[in-house]
Amino acid sequence: MTDATSQMITTADGKPLKAALAASLAVRRRRAFLLVAPLFLFILISFIVPIGQMLFQSFYNDTFSKNAPALVEWFSTHPEGSEIDESAYAALAADLAQMKKDRTAGEAGTRINYDVSGTRSLFTSTARGADKFKPPFKEAILQVEKKWDNPNVWRAMRSASSPFTLDFYLAANDLTRDESGKIVPVAEGQAIYKKLMGRTLMLSLEITALCLLLGFPIAFLLSSLPMRKAMLLMILVLLPFWTSLLVRTTAWMVLLQSQGVVNDLLVWLGLVRDDHRIQMMYNETGTIVAMTHILLPFTILPLYSVMKTIPPSYVRAARSLGATSWTAFRRVYLPQTLPGIGAGGLLVFILAMGYYITPALVGGADGQMISNMIAMHMQKTLNWSLAAALAAELLAIVLIFFWIYDKLVGIDKMKLG
Amino acid sequence: MKKLLILTTALVATGYAASAQELNIVSWGGSYTVSQVEAYHKPFTEMTGVKINSIDADNPATPLKAQVEAGNVSIDLADIELSDAIRLCDEGLLEPIDPAILPPAPDGTPATEDFVPGAIQDCAVANIVWGTVVAYDKTKFPGNEPSTLADFFDTTKYPGKRGLLKTAKRTMEMALVADGVAPDQVYEVLGTDEGVARAFKKLDSIKKDIVWWEAGAQPPQLLADGEVVMTTGYNGRFFAAEVGEGKPFGTIWDGEYMDYDLWAIPKGAPHLEDAKKFLAFSTDTQRLADQAKYIAYGPARKSSNALIGLYKDGKTEMAPYMPTNPENMKNPIWTDPTFWADHDAELAEKFNAWLAS
């Protein structure tokens, strides 16, 4: 017995079996890797790298620090609370002169402007005459622009003198720093992101609940009908699914606007007075209706695929053992559909959290979501760092929900189709 | 990584390889580019033999910035917005333009006086002036048509929904002017907390009646659908709906918001001399007037107004639809890009907070 195990098993040409197996597996693994390599590369280049780069921008912004070396030097040798003296203004004058030469005052000023509104022009206008400044610099600069006296500008410059910063995460949470560097909430009329983040969360949960509520019976009907009729119904589900998102959103606008089909019908039926048409579009209702419709197939399809595999005999058995139809549904059928509910719900929730076009078109004033703010900072204010910080928070929230789902239901139980 | 992204963007654009006797001009596409091809490109090629490649971009400033930063420039000339022209010039990405190269008006007025104020920038020269105006549905107000910006905010006298652009820029200025602020003082007022509060208060008075729009195609559609009875929007779009499609729209030329599109030459443009020649040629009095034949955006030169003829349909007189027509320019708000470079982020946040409240 001991003899047999100690003796090594070899292949016909005398190689140890273990090594031969490993070698042949390695070839296979390499081949498999080569097969997925194009996809992997594609994902790396088009997905992971850009997203990583974008998230990096949320805490890294060197547009001020690289253009103001003298001030960076001054801030590093003078700790917080130091008096803004002549040496500081001398550094500022040197940097402004350099900025004029390189034409970078706008770039550096934009970074400070994110923090203290109104300072971009302070940089560009002061830099215009910066090569003519003579000592004492403090007087010379303050004579051109009184606003350099503002301690908040200096606090912002100190904060921006390191390219690594949490400023954008503060801004994304409606926070800022006061003149002494303490973190404080922004002025009341300016706080928006936390509120919108909360609304995005609420809207997404409402839409997910609606999708499940509406999708469940449809999926059940699909799975219990005979094949031919089920296919017909399935096409009705899939056709809108294949139609462009924009077309479907616009179709809802045609239906729901105050001069739209639904309102016309209600007026014609005499249920609504002509001058009191119901406002169903360009508000939160419009966003919920349009998004629920657009996302509905994402719940129906996983639910259908799960329900299809549930043998009807289970419910029949429960009924024959005396369960009421409600008990049989609740105790026998529903638990078996859980993987589909989980998959559909999670899918809709994640998609809804990041939805952009539909709320932008039909959301009006109170149907906006956080993604609309991200888009605004990407395209209009060009504050990509703040957009990245908001996106990072959105991603974190989705991941938290993913984690909760994994803890409650288990991600391995999810069935997507 | 940023370099890589810039490089790939620039590579795409270098498809238009540089060679002698041609110019690569980037503009916005659509009927706007058509108007430029007809009025500028074709006559320039005829006159000089220089071939022009017309390239479309969503915003020509974006490929321009990418190319200059990557040091691989194929664009010779780009049509960009005022705020971009100032920003890119500040960042040193544009060739400075000496106004002396611009030809004088036919009567000898020097270019610097012939162009409307602000149209000649350090690194860019405006070709058109476009307006954000209020348009209304004539059928909704028979015998009592609105005529001022204040009427837009008066829902008692002119009941019905209003369409408004969902951004702080333009909307807040128009609210202040409707509230009685003189257009040339609007940025002074908007720069203060009281001014911002005043703009919101004015907007509050019609908030429940506002339908917000974002894309330029929306306002004429909202108006045609009867979803709103009055809306702000771009004057060229309303012209296309009114004259091109025969919709019963009227335009209010009071407190309209004026903005420019400008020609700019990127640093390192391959055909710098030809680009400058083209810029001077296309912004002369006749060429700017010719463009107006194809689109209802106003020429940036005062002297062009007298030469504006008929729309391409051959019967519509263009002058009454031009934002630069003296009849229409009685009370305009001229955009202040420096103010917006400073306050865009702050006011956008306040505006969105107001929207959500």
From TrEMBL, chain A:
It comes from the Bacteria. CDD domains: TM_PBP2 (cd06261). The chain crosses the membrane at residues 32-56, 201-223, 230-247, 284-304, 341-362, 382-405. It is a multi-pass membrane protein. Residues 197-405 form the ABC transmembrane type-1 domain. InterPro entries: MetI-like, MetI-like_sf. GO terms for cellular component: plasma membrane. Keywords: Cell membrane, Membrane, Transmembrane, Transmembrane helix, Transport. It is found in: Cell membrane. The keyword Cell cycle does not apply. One of its GO terms (biological process) is transmembrane transport. The keyword Ribonucleoprotein does not apply. PANTHER family: ABC TRANSPORTER PERMEASE PROTEIN (PTHR42929:SF5), INNER MEMBRANE ABC TRANSPORTER PERMEASE PROTEIN YDCU-RELATED-RELATED (PTHR42929). Belongs to the binding-protein-dependent transport system permease family. CysTW subfamily. This is ABC transporter permease.
UniProtKB/TrEMBL annotation, chain B:
The keyword Transport does not apply. Keywords: Signal. CDD domains: PBP2_polyamine_RpCGA009 (cd13589). Pfam families: SBP_bac_8. It comes from Paenirhodobacter ferrireducens. Residues 1-20 form the signal peptide. This is ABC transporter substrate-binding protein.
